[in-house]
């Protein structure tokens, strides 16, 4: 059986880039890692960075799905701001009436490959991704320390793309976009806390 450097394979297939391996950071720091937060992790761990990591999710019935070959993850975050223009020569700019932090956007890039025979199309891995994407519900993230740092415990898959692999019949690169999904009861708990502080 041939040996593959999956990280290099994924990086070269998508953008000829090799990002930092997050599991290596986790291995070196997990003993002193007490509670997920973004303090003391290092400048390289920022929104928009790309990190190789094992990603496993589960549906509501408990069926688990593993993304093939340690895909690259990147995370971004934005805000929705309702702005109203003001009138008058002394007042410049706009009034920000409503500011809301949106869901995290998660970008997942990876490569499917038939390890037993790289000349054969990786149909099983592609079919597994297809089945995962067809689930019209949020998926629970199973023990992923990178997503846990941002308190992302559920995701919803929004878009999947299988790109062409010219001259590589045994490879199939994929890109999946997803968003974080906060539990409804967690939203209610947060609202109750906010109301108590206002009263």
Q: Which characteristics define this entry?
A:
single chain, 199 residues, two-stranded antiparallel ribbon
Give a written overview of the molecule:
This protein is of the alpha+beta class and 199 residues long. 24% of the residues lie in helices and 31% in strands. It contains five helices and ten strands; from the N terminus they run H-H-E-E-E-E-E-E-E-H-E-H-E-E-H. It has helices at residues 6-14, 22-29, 123-133, 145-149, 184-198, and strands at 50-52, 56-58, 64-66, 72-76, 79-85, 94-101, 105-113, 139-142, 154-162, 171-180. The chain has an eight-stranded antiparallel beta sheet with strand order 1-4-7-10-9-8-2-3. A two-stranded antiparallel sheet has the order 5-6. The chain starts with 5 loop residues before the first helix and ends with a helix.
The best one-word shape is elongated
Structural class: alpha+beta
Give the C-alpha Rg: 21 Å
What series of H and E elements makes up the topology? HHEEEEEEEHEHEEH
Helix content range of the residues, please?
Answer: 10-25%
Estimate the strand proportion.
Answer: 25-35%
- Oligomeric state as shown: single chain
Number of helices in the DSSP assignment: 5
* Major pleated sheet: 8 strands, antiparallel
Q: Give the strand line-up of the largest sheet.
A: 1-4-7-10-9-8-2-3
Low-confidence blocks of residues: 32-46
Tell me the span between the first and last alpha carbons. 66 Å
Question: Tally of extended strands?
Answer: 10
Average pLDDT metric: 76
């Amino acid at each position: 059986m041939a040996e593959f450097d999956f990280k290099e394979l994924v990086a070269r297939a998508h953008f000829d880039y090799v990002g930092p391996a997050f599991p290596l950071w986790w291995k070196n720091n997990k003993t002193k890692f007490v509670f997920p937060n973004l303090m003391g992790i290092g400048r390289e761990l920022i929104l928009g960075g790309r990190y190789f990591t094992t990603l496993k999710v589960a549906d509501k019935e408990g069926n688990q799905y593993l993304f093939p070959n340690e895909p690259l993850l990147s995370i971004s975050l934005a805000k929705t701001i309702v702005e109203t223009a003001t009138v008058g020569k002394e007042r410049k700019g706009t009034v920000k009436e409503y500011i809301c932090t949106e869901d995290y956007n998660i970008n997942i890039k990876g490569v499917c490959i038939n390890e037993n025979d790289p000349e054969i199309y990786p149909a099983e891995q592609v079919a597994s991704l297809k089945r995962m994407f067809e689930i019209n519900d949020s998926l629970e993230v199973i023990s992923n320390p990178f997503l846990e740092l941002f308190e992302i415990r559920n995701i919803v898959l929004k878009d999947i793309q299988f790109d062409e692999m010219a001259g590589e019949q045994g490879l199939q690169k994929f890109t999946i976009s997803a968003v974080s999904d906060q539990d409804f009861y967690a939203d209610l708990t947060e609202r109750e806390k906010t109301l108590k502080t206002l009263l």
